[in-house]
Structures are given as structure tokens and as C-alpha cells.
Amino acid sequence: MEVKNLTKNFAGLAAVRNVSLLVKEGEILAIVGPNGAGKSVLFGLISGLLRPTSGVIHLRGEEITGLKPHRIAQKGITRTFQTTALFDQLRVVDNLAIGYRLRTQGGFWNTLLHTRLWKEDKDRTTAKVMEALSFIGLAEKAFHFVSTLSQAEQKRLSIGVALISQPKMILLDEPTGGLILEDTDEITALIRKIHKVAGITVCLIEHKMRMVMDLADRMVVLNFGSVIAEGTPEEISNNPEVIEAYLGGESIA
Amino acid sequence: MATVQFLRQRWFYVLLLILAVVLPWSITNRYHFQIVIMGCLFSIATLSMNLILGYTGQASLAHAGFFGIGAYGVALLTKGGLSFWLALPLSALLAAAIGFLIGLPTLRSRGSYFAISTMCFGVIISIVAGNWIDFTGGYNGIVGIPLPNPLSIPLIGDLGFQTQAGQYYLVLAFLFLTLLIMHRLVHSLLGLSFMAIRNNEVLAGSVGINTFAGKVLSFVVANFFAGLAGGIYASLMGTISPSTASLELTFNWLIFLLLGGAATLAGPIIGAFVIPVIMEYLQFLAEYRLIIFGALLIVVIIYFPRGLMGGFTTLQQRVKSFYAQRRG
Amino acid sequence: MQLFFQQIFNGIMLGSTYAIVALGLTLVFGILHIPNFAHGHLYMLGAYISFFLMTLYGFGFWTALVSSMVILGMIGMLIERIIYRPLQDKPHINSFISAIGALIILETSVIVLWGPQGRRIPNPYPDIVELLGITMSYQRLLVIMTAIVLIVLLQVFIKKTTPGTTIEAVAQNREGAMLVGINVNWVSSLTFAISTATAAAAASLVAPIFMISPTMGALLGMKAFVIVILGGLGSIPGAILGGYILGILEAIGGGYLSAAYKDVYAFGALILILSIRPTGLFGKEVS
């Protein structure tokens, strides 16, 4: 996926300023930067929630700039949100089934008449949901309501919901936000699994530097809405500009 | 056998079905019977309102307007000579079509804005009904609407609708039809997508659901059934007027729906029956009953927002998890 | 031509009423983000309380008006406390229902106490003056002038006094206001009180001109919504401008075009505008 010269202005303030980056297929790319650097806004622009003021976005050569979120999901980019977003009035299996909805075709008439297509959709969804449940490790809590899940379980579920439709790329917005070390490691392992086993390209926003350095193939650093550095974790950790942006002159241990 | 097992699991519903069918034999009071018939008819209205409001989370306040479209449609068509059995589906389709045309502009707004938009539309329908005198008879409405034509059923003979029993079975049949359709729509991936829209519209879009299309579909289907109920109402009542499409009626259904329990299939039906009955019992209080009713409404919506059925399911869940904990 | 100016005058008077009512509504809608469906009925109650005080206790017109404002202010605070505050974090539809309950209670109470038929309030200024060929009754002039005074007073209050700016702060950012220690509950109460008090004033002013009836508030309430949404939630200038525009349009439309369908035009315009700008003409995106 490629982003070119993307800019987003909010009432005169440039939240994202002329950002260009490239995400290679099959890699794990981490987007980092101090708070307010524009990382979530960038995700919003890519996922269709926000319209760019200028700039273009391409996915595998096809332009997707400005498409509505559900069209972007159909094209193969799904995401999670910083504040865990789930369908909290429903159960775990329902959430996953909804995540898979875009891969089913049956609409009003098929549902009304219980056609064979409807049955196929139903069976395929059930199978996929079972698969996703074991992938994210929530099989025991399948029929529980989301509100009964722990923070970590909810994060896993939201990742599962984004995954189940077999996207080409998944955007994870602070997937370990607010979690303790143990749970963070769990999520990291899950992300590795997504990458290796499912072969999905991962683009994530994270604050926990150690985790990111370990996990990512490449990193992009944002500050004040612009890209200030790009490269492998090693290159980034030695980049003086990055160090200054984060710590004001001291090195990252 | 599969059928026996099916019946055994659903014995409660089968019992209800049997009771519903034999009901006419046990009611002697014409007035009570009328209340039951109205209850069934309004249940269709509240069930359809439940689809757009309870399941998809959009507060349409134009529901009675579409009821009115169905009513006026059947009134004019049957008085013009068309058979009820043709006029009814046509009028319901008209309500659905107008629902589509209105849904396109209004569903672009959310929450309160959508509610007010639809409220305005509902009032527009009332005003038009009251002032398009050549067509709708103005504020006097339309009288002399014929009853549904008798149906000839093979082997049984003609089924007429002059008797209350006949009318009751008519309404009951349509209620079952509505219930069946709603059940299928709601317990499906489509139903889940509606609930997704209700729960978190932004997330629903992000996972690939076309939320606008979903809302429009839900709205159109809901209005179809509103129109259907309206058409039957017109034929059975014989007279209609602009008050058939009034905001007041929409508010009544809203109350039935929310007190009975939104987002359940039993709730709207319970609400549509229980509340009018309660209101009837409180007749002796004259106007004061409305004050009590208003107060009751406020109390219930604040302290029991999931209505009767909602409270019931919560209770069920609590009992289940209590036993699960004891076992585990 | 004379007819035209006459209609304009009537329109300005009507618009004054609409402006005040819409103003009260936009204050509440802007702060609570919930439409107060009961607003029209509170307006109606204001008229009846004035009527009651004047006929039963022999209050003078102005005394009754001020008393009505005070009483209705208190009722407004009560409504906020009982009907809306408990449902703050719940879906908006619950607040609608609550408001409907309040509406039913208000309308029925009035019917029980004073009967369903319309009542006449004696006109305290029955004189008429002829100016430029337009017939102006003193009462109607009074409506216009009092409305202007009220609007100016309110603007001054909101912009210059501390409670006023506090209300603006809460309207713009409720959570931020809480964080800096503003008691938002108190602000909500005050806003409601102002909203209902001004509605009572408008109703009392207009009551001697038209009849009062238990249903006089319903349609007006809905029109107030149209004005508020078109003018922008929480925007006082928007409400005022919108009120006058609607008043004048209605007077002219009613005089020249079909009187029956004039409301249809207003409501139709609302649907159209909301379809183009789903959050109102001057609204911002509410997340």
C-alpha cells in the first residue's frame, strides 16, 4: 500500500502534513511518534473515516483515496481502534460473525426465504467464527457477552474481528494500550501469528518501544504530522532526530 | 422424529398458538373482542417499528404516517372498486416506496436529527391528509370503506369477514406472517448487521457493512408492515381520518414498544396488548389515568429501560449464570 | 401593497414569538444535545399560568407575566432534574420517551384543571394605532418590543456575565468544563430555567392576541425544532434570525399562498436541508 503526500487539515491546523510512506506486502510496519504526532489521524485517513485535504492512497496499484470505510474494508484493509471498539451489546461469536459479514452475500430476500445461499453463508460464517475463536484463543468465551470480557480479551477480540474477513492489510491502533506486561506479550505473540501464519500485512501504531523494536520489520516515525524518519528498527534507534523528538537529546537505552 | 422434537422444544409457542386460535370461543363481549383485534393490529405496527428502532437503532417518528398511507391507500382503492386483496399489498408497497424516497434524504442524519426529520414528515402526511380534500376527504376523512371481500377457500367454502371472529382470524394470520418474517430477518446475519449498526455505527462501517444501505432496508421493510397494518385497519374500521396518521399514534406505539421490551420479538406484542388493557381498566380514573400513564412512562424508561421482556431476559441470564457459577 | 406591509408587521410579531421560543430551545439543545420535546407544552403551560393568575387572582398583565416566568423557570429546573438528568448517558431515544411522558402529564393536567376548550385572556392594551397605513394593535407592538428587550438581555447575559459564559463553556465542551471544576448539573438547571422562563414570557405576551388551548404548544414546539436545526444548535443568533424568517415567511405565505399548507413548506424545507447537511445548517460533526 502506498500513501503519497497525504495532508489533513482540521480547522487550519495540519494534523498530517505531506506524509508519504510505503507498506510492503507481508511486512510488519510500525508507526511511532510522540503523542499528537498524527498517527491515529493517519489511520483514519487510510481506513476511510476521514477525508484527506490532499494526497492519494493506493492499495496494490488501485486508488482508494476518499472511499467510504466499508468500501475500504471490502478492498481488504481492516483496523482496530485505540479505544477498544466492539459491539458491546452482543456476544463474542456475534462480533466475529459481523466481522465476517462482508464476505457473505445473502441479503434481504435470501434471508427471508431461507435459500440455499443463506444456508451456505450461515455455515461458512459458523466455520470461520470457530476458526477465528481458536486463533485468538477465546474459544471458551464464545457465547459470553463482550461486557464480561477482560481488557486483554477485548483487545484480542477486536483484533479477531478485524482479521476474520481475511484482509490484505490490518491496521492496529495501539493494540496493547493499557495492558500489563503479560497481556502485552500475548498480543505480541498474536501479531506474530497473524504475520507468519495468516500472511497478512500488519501496520501498527505503538508506544512501547521495546516491543516494537522486537516485532517490526520497518518503522516510520512521525512528529507534528510529518515523517521524520524511516527504516529498520536499528537505523531508527540510532537516528538523532528521532531521539531528540522523543527524549530531547538523551539516547534510547 | 424431527417434527416431534421441534414441537417439544417449542411447546410454549404451540400452546400460545392453540390458545390464540380458540380465543373467539371464549370471548363473549364485543367490546373486549374489539380490543383484542386492535391489539393484534397494533402488534404488527409495533413489531415493524421494532425493526427500525429496536434492532437498527434509528428512531423513526413517522411510523403512523406510513400506517396512514396504507390506510388511505386501501380506503381509496377499495371504494374505487378494487378487491381488498389487491388493494392491501399495493398500499403496503406504496408505503414502502414512499419510505424509500423519504429514507434516502433523512437517513443521512443520525439520532435526534433523524427523529426530528421523520417527525416532520409524519406531520406533513397528517396535514396533507387533512387538506387534500378532493382526494382524502379532508378532516372528515373517508367513510364507508368496505370490509375485505370474502375469501373462497377450497374444501371449506367462503370465509367472510362480517363477524368479529372472521376479522380476528384475518388479523391473527397477518400477525403470524409478520412475526415469522421478523423472526427470520432478525435471527440471521442480516439481523446481526442491523444490530451492529445500532451498537456502533462507525465500527460497523469499518468492518465492511454498508450502514446506509442497511438503514434504508430496515426502514423500508418497517414501513411496508406499517402500511400493511394501516390497510387492514381501514378496511375493518370502515372509516379513517387524518388522526389515523397522527404523531400521537406513533407516540402510543413507541410506548407499547419500549415498555414491552424493544429488540425482542415478544416485547412489542406484549406492549401492544397489555398497555391498552391497563388503560381500559383505568377508565374509572377518567383523565387522571393519562397523568398516571405519563408518570409511569417516565419511571419505567428511567429505571426499567429494557421494558418488560428486556427485564425478563436479564433475569433469565442472571439465573443461568448463577447456576453456571454454582456448577463451575 | 398595504396588505404586504401588514403581513410583514404580522410576520415580525409572529417571528418575535418564534425567536424567543427557538432561543430557549437552542440553549437547551446546545447544552444537553437532546431535543426537549416538551418545550412546546411548557410554553403552553406558561400561557395558562398567566391566564390563571390574571383571572383567578386578579393579577395585572405584567405581574402575571413575570410570575409565570418565575414559576415556569422552577418547573423547567424540575423537568431537567427528573426527566433528563437520569438519562444523560443513555441512548437519546430514552430521553424522547421521558419527554413524551412529561408532555402527556402537562397536557392532561391542563385539560383537567381548565378544560379542553380554548380560553380567552382579556387584552390589557386593546388600543390600536395606525401607522403608515398599517393597523398595529398595541398588544402586537408590545410583543415585538418585549421580545427585542428579552433577546438583548439574554445576549448580554450570555456574553457578559459569569453564569452566561459558563453556560457557553458547557455547551461547547461539557467534559472540559467539568475538568476545570464547573458544576455542569447546576449549569443545566440554570439553562433549563432560562429556557422555560423565556417561553413563558413569549406565551403570556401572545396569549391575549390568540386564544389559548391545551394543544397550542405542540405545533409551535415542532416549528421551534425546525428553526433551531436550521439556525444551528446552540446558536442564539441562528435561532433569532430563523425565528423571524419563519414568522415573516409564514405570514406572507399564509396571506398569499395556501394557508393550510404553510406548515408543510417549513417542515419540508427542514427535511431537505437535513438531507444536504445532516447536522443542520451550522452544525458541526457530533461524534
Please describe the structure with a list of short key phrases separated by commas or semicolons.
heterotrimer, A: alpha/beta, Rossmann fold, C: 287 residues, mainly alpha, 74% helix
Quick overview:
The complex is a heterotrimer of chains A (253), B (328) and C (287). With 253 residues, chain A is of the alpha/beta class. Helices cover 40% and strands 23% of the residues of chain A.
Note the topology.
The complex is a heterotrimer of chains A (253), B (328) and C (287).
Chain A: E1 2-10, E2 13-22, E3 28-32, H1 39-47, E4 54-59, E5 62-63, H2 69-75, E6 77-79, H3 92-100, H4 108-113, H5 116-136, H6 151-163, E7 169-173, H7 181-196, E8 201-205, H8 209-215, E9 218-223, E10 226-231, H9 233-237, H10 240-247
Chain B: H1 2-9, H2 11-26, H3 30-55, H4 63-79, H5 84-106, H6 111-131, H7 133-136, E1 151-153, E2 157-159, H8 164-186, H9 189-199, H10 201-206, H11 211-237, H12 247-260, H13 266-281, H14 288-303, H15 307-327
Antiparallel strand pairs in B: 1-2
Chain C: H1 2-32, H2 39-56, H3 61-84, H4 92-114, E1 128-131, E2 134-137, H5 138-160, H6 162-172, H7 174-179, H8 184-206, H9 216-231, H10 236-256, H11 262-276
Antiparallel strand pairs in C: 1-2
Helix pairs in contact in C: 1-5, 1-6, 1-8, 1-9, 1-10, 2-3, 2-4, 2-8, 2-9, 3-8, 5-6, 5-8, 6-8, 9-10, 9-11
